[in-house]
Design goal:
Largest sheet: 4 strands, mixed
CATH architecture of one domain: Distorted Sandwich
InterPro entries: DMAP1-bd, Gtb1-like, Man6P_isomerase_rcpt-bd_dom_sf, MRH_dom, PRKCSH
Order of helices and strands: EEEEEEHHHHHHH
Distance between the termini: 78 Å
CATH topology of one domain: Cation-dependent Mannose-6-phosphate Receptor, Chain A
GO molecular function: transferase activity
Pfam families: PRKCSH_1
CATH superfamily of one domain: Mannose-6-phosphate receptor binding domain
Protein name: N-acetylglucosamine-1-phosphate transferase subunit gamma
Strand order of the largest sheet: 1-4-6-5
Helix content: 40-55%
Number of strands: 6
Number of helices: 7
Strand content: 15-25%
Keywords: Disulfide bond, Signal, Transferase
Amino acid sequence: MWMRDGDSCHSRSRQSKVELTCGKSNRLAHVSEPSTCVYALTFETPLVCHPHSLLVYPALPTALQQRWDQVEQDLADELITAQGYEKLLRALFQDAGYLKTPEESESTQEGGAQGLVFETLDSCSKAHKELSKEIKRLQSVLTQHGIPYTKPVETSSSEHLGSKIPTDRTAEQLLGSPGLLGNTL
């Protein structure tokens, strides 16, 4: 983090660069002045030990933040193992809705996006609306935290069908004609 525009110092403003590093407790670990009126501070905290902590932690409800704090403290106090830590964080992320539960993962693997089959147009439309709503929710979360994303390139419905584009022959079949197709016997 850069903190700029501090008190006046020899015709310029004081600046501080604060680096957050993983540590067993909250403490100021190092301070230096690499150049006049520019300070470098290293602050250790268990709150940044997880690789996604600065993205996820601020977005969590207070109760889940407190759970995460306790998990970090238990790890720092060696009350839990690294494996226990990972398990507790996984459960916390599942409770927050950031990870799927094992049951949800299994159902996704069995009938994942590639294996979706809809019996009716209505069920397909309903699933499309639900997925669109989820995409908008996720885009909102990304925007809220200043994480850039790109919108997918729009594709036509014929591109989604791939080689299953109806031909005149299949159109006749779809009309329900039980007779001969074209001039074939």
